[in-house]
Amino acid sequence: MSEFVETISRSEDGRFLELLIGPQHPASGHMRLVAEVDGDVVVSLRPNLGYVHRSVEKIAEVKKFLQIIPLVERPSLADTTANNLAYVLALERLLGVEPPPRAQYLRTLLAEINRIHSHFYGIGIHGVMIGSSTAFMWAFGDREPLIHLAQELTGARITYSYIIPGGVRRDMPPDFPDKVEKVLRYIERRLEDYDKLYVRNPVVRARLEGVGVLKKEDAIRLGITGPNLRASGVPYDVRKADPYCAYPDIDFNVITREEGDAMARFLVRVGEIRESMKIIRQVLKKMPDGPIFAEKYYKMLPPNLKKYYEETKEVKFPGIFANLRAPAGESVARVEGGRGEVVIYIVSKGGMNPYRFRIVTPSFRNAVLFEHLVRNVRVADIPAIYGSLDYFPPEADR
Amino acid sequence: MVCGLKGMMWVGNLEKAARKAAVWLVNKRPIRDIRDWGISFSLWPVHFTTACCGAEFAATSAPKYDAERFGFLPFVASRQCNLLLIEGTLTKKMAKAALWVYEQMPEPKFVIAMGACAIDGGIFWNSYNIVRPMDILPVSVFIPGCPPRPEAVAQAIIMLQKKIRKGELVKYEEMEVVK
After folding, report:
1. What is the DSSP string of A352-398?
2. Domain that holds residue B72
3. Is A202 exposed, middle or buried (0-12, 13-18, 19+ CB in 10 A)?
4. Domain range enclosing A245
5. Is B96 part of any domain?
């Protein structure tokens, strides 16, 4: 742990030491942790946030509605689809546009692919923090096939900007379902290896079991969402509670566990990877035919872009869409991202850019949770707890 | 130096002379090439993530793109590293930390600025809370892209290696001997 320490100060009565951990530390989280320690026991911990505050909400007020799509993706780079989808759903509610069914299914498909590779990202970073480089190498290696799939669908590695008001940007390539099936079979095989390497590994169990226990009542009181909440035994999932896109037609389970410790949070993520694979298979089976772009906007395309759309099934917006005006009003949309519930709130005064823009991200709630969990634990448990939350600082700071 | 038969030989400050000779030797052609070759294949970036490009930086070190084959191994302690990668946006609060980390690293040290935000702000160009890395750090290589692909990061490493092997970046000068 010597690398963690930068400067040390002692409390007035000389009993507690104040440890400043970071912002350059092995966990490479962009925040400073101010821990008060009594010997090897952490008495309290205050995360010092704001190292990645880039004023996304303020910038959104001067950007046009379509320009905000790439902007909202940047705060949460490992899980871009959730933010993109939440923003577009909120905007569509404001504009009164309904995407066609095929577009809904394609959105669901990308959201689930993204959820799997976001969970692998979390598992890998968690592995680094508890000192298991193998877990990092495996998880990041297994993330690549899924990124490759998403790349075939959208054209970008992680910042897709795939979901646009009225539909999606591209149709699925014809041989896509076969490739997805191949990848899913590979991931299934690999998850068994993870069981052997990680879940049944005595070292990992000793580091994670019973560490950072979050009680059910505390989880609800602190407003935690996503896998961290479900690991404490609360079956809350926005996909079930407030269904959007194609989720009402799809059969899946909400993974919960009762223990609420770091191991349970890890196992919930693994369980969700399995559920997401189930969802992807159903989506591909039920995928309806038809347009991928709303009729209302299709009519507004000039003839050359209409022809381009018919030939390639790719949507290109003409320049007039830059001046998209949303009617005055407010709208809010929520989406279940890889890390939890993403809420986006737009206030429009009828202009070309929003009057007020707000993102509520799951990671900020996790920062509150982190402070709550690291109390009377060992110093070596800090990275184990920190990693198990799947905390992504740019998302919390926005 | 050994004393002569009759009296002493004037040698001046022996330690200073040795240092001068070492600097002269290290900057001399064959030794300099070997030195630069060695530095170029042991670029250890410090584990310091400034913003969201860190996700792609992690993918660069992961199996598919495996940057370790260039001698590129992310490491924890800044005192054992010689490369600082500014990954994406540098906020005002983070810039202070970046300067601290840079000052702690031993010479010779290099800086790579990754992502459009690290060049000129990128999508956050009009944000009130960002700093251009080139204003505060001597950046050797810029990587465009938002975020850059891992291949681009690998290319930046190779570019930096070429620059080092040309002898543009590393210069040893005579240091003052502190007694």
Report:
1. SS-SEEEEE-HHHHHHHHHHHH-SSEETTHHHHHHHHTT--HHHHH-
2. 44-165
3. exposed
4. 78-316+382-387
5. yes
At residue A1, does pLDDT exceed 60?
Answer: no
Question: In this predicted structure, what is the pLDDT of residue A313?
Answer: 79
- pLDDT of A365 over the 50 cut: yes
- In chain B, the percentage of residues whose pLDDT exceeds 90 is 6
Nearest to A51 among B64, B91, B100 (CB): B91
What confidence score (pLDDT) does residue A3 get?
Answer: 40
| Interface test mutation site (partner A, options B49, B60, B83, B87, max chain A beta carbons within 10 A) | B49
Residue A101 scores a pLDDT above 70: yes
Answer whether residue B101 is part of any domain: yes
Rounded to an integer, the average pLDDT of B164-176 is 70
Chain A residues with CB under 8 Å of a chain B CB are 3, 23-26, 28-30, 50-55, 58-59, 62, 70-71, 74-78, 121, 124-125, 136-137, 140-141, 143-144, 147, 157-159, 394
Cα(A356)–Cα(A266) distance, integer angstroms: 36
Residue with the two structure tokens 């880039």: A54
State which residue of chain A sits closest to B53, comparing Cα positions: A77
Is B49 within 8 Å of chain A by CB?
Answer: yes
Return the SS3 of B4. coil
Q: What confidence tens digit (pLDDT) does each residue in B31-88 have?
A: 888 888 888 888 888 888 888 888 888 888 888 888 888 888 888 788 888 888 888 8
Q: Which residues are B143's β-sheet partners?
A: B114
Instruction: Please judge whether A30 and B129 are an interchain contact, meaning their C-beta atoms are less than 8 angstroms apart.
Output: no
- The CATH number for A139's domain is 1.10.645.10
For residue B69, the domain's CATH number is 3.40.50.12280
Three-state SS string across A361-374, please? Answer: CHHHHHHHHHHHHC
DSSP string computed for B125-155? TT-TTEE-HHHHS---EEE-SSSPPHHHHHH
Domains in chain B: how many in total?
1
Closest A-chain CA to B121: A54
Contact B52 A77 (CB under 8 A): yes
In this predicted structure, what is the pLDDT of residue A26? Answer: 64
Instruction: Report the distance separating Cα B17 and Cα A136, nearest Å.
Output: 50
**ipTM score:** 0.81
